[in-house]
Structures are given as C-alpha cells and as structure tokens.
Design a protein that fits this description.
With 233 residues, the protein is of the alpha/beta class. It contains 9 helices and 8 strands. It binds pyridoxal-5'-phosphate.
Length: 233
C-alpha cells in the first residue's frame, strides 16, 4: 500500500518542488526532501528507502528508537529528529539521529554538552526559531535569537548548520510566507554578525506550505502527509 502510494506521490511532489524553485530562479537540487514517517508503520519506512529517499524524519524519540531497532540489516537512512525534545532524551538522539532540527533552547544544548563523551563528533543541529510568533510553538524568540546564537555556537557537542521554523496553521498565504521569510532574514543577519555561524540549511515547509517555503529559500522540506497520506491514529 505504501509503496504504491509513494510511487504516485513522489514524482508529483518533486515536480511541485521543481516548479516552486524555478519560479524564483533556484535549482531544485538545492532542496532536500525529508520524508516524515512519524505515526506511519515500518512499511512506510521501507517504501521510502526503496524509492531512494534516504532522509527520513521522526518527531518522537521512542518511535525513532523502535524504527531503528526494527530496521533490518543494510538500511541506513539518515534520521532527522524534527520534534521538540525533552532534555533527558539528548543522549539517545545523539546516538540515533543524523540531524536535530529542533534545537529550541540553550537548556537543551547544554544537556547535549554535558552528556556527549569527550572526543565524540558533534551532532549537526538546526536552531528552531519561532518566527510565527505563536505562543504554542517552541523555539528561540526571533528578537533575541541573534544575541543568543553565540552560546549555541560555543557548544562542542553540536554543530549549528542552519535554522528551522514551522509556519502557522492557516490559509493566509502571506502570513505563512512572512514566517519563512523572517527565518531567512535572521539567517542572513546571523551570517553577517557572527562569523562563527556558517549555517547553510533552512528547514522549512511541510505538506501544506512547502512550495511557499521553497520560494523563500528552504533547503530541507519536511513532508509527511503529501507522501504517505493521512497519519493513522
Ligand atoms: C509532522 C511533522 C511534519 C510533517 O507534517 P505534514 O504536514 O504531514 O507534512 C513536519 N515537521 C514537523 C516538525 C512535524 O512534526
């Protein structure tokens, strides 16, 4: 079931990414798809891997652990942790994930710092910034982000490779666009102000808004529903 669905959905999604990129003179090669398999069974993971998708996303550590444990042999997806993390889960994420998209507090960063063994390679991480301004969302405040960034850059256990945001759930396209644009502006400001910040990634865009995100400079789109269908309960 998942294999068939994905075989239909993926070319369409790729074409939509290509067209969005072309509208702003970007190359589609600059946009990576992260296939978010959360809440879907292992079958979705295998379907993704068989179509050549290597970047997979989960938003809960427990589910990530289960999927990693169940994956047979040779499969080596790059797992992206995209959801809010309780600090105490930091060591597990360091072991299981290729990239953390949701570095949303200095407290979490410090927990990685305390629990990462001496000499271990840093975990690539994206700083989540709450550019939608919604209270319910995690992340650094856009107003303070640039002042707080140096503390994150000082951590040896994480390497900050870019920024991440989530748009509000709304039909208001200009609000969505503004949320993504603000992230890109903060990224550019950070690059000007802090030479130690060498981020190149902007993780933004989900099933409902990824074309707008690509137009605004996204390099990582996190897609679940549009690839795998509605999540089962
Ligand atoms: C679930 C989730 C996604 C994927 O959402 P869809 O709307 O199904 O594409 C992307 N990012 C994060 C952080 C998520 O939790």
């Amino acid at each position: 079931m998942y294999a068939n669905r994905l075989a239909e959905a993926l070319p369409r999604v790729r074409e939509r990414v290509r067209q969005a990129a072309a509208r702003v003179g970007r190359n589609e090669g600059g946009v990576r798809l992260v296939a978010v398999t959360k809440a879907h069974p292992l079958e979705a993971v295998y379907a993704a891997l068989e179509t050549g998708l290597r970047d997979l996303g989960e938003n809960r550590v427990g589910e990530l652990e289960e999927k990693v444990a169940a994956l047979a042999g040779d499969h080596r997806p790059r797992w992206h942790m995209v959801g809010h993390l309780q600090s105490r889960k930091a060591p597990r994420v360091r072991e299981l994930a290729t990239m953390l998209h949701s570095l949303d507090s200095l407290k979490l960063g410090r927990r990685f710092e305390r629990t990462t063994p001496e000499g271990a390679p840093p975990l690539p991480a994206l700083v989540q910034v709450n550019t939608s301004g919604e209270d319910a969302k995690y992340g650094f405040s856009p107003d303070r982000f640039c002042d707080e960034l140096p503390d994150l850059l000082d951590l040896r256990s994480l390497s900050v490779e870019g920024l991440m945001t989530m748009a509000p759930l709304t039909r208001d396209e200009e609000r969505i666009r503004g949320t993504f644009r603000r992230l890109r502006e903060l990224h550019e400001e950070a690059r000007r102000r802090h030479p130690a910040y060498r981020g190149t990634e902007l993780s933004m865009g989900m099933s409902n808004d990824f074309e707008i995100a690509v137009e605004e400079g996204s390099t990582l789109v996190r897609l679940g529903t549009v690839l795998f269908g509605e999540r089962p309960e």
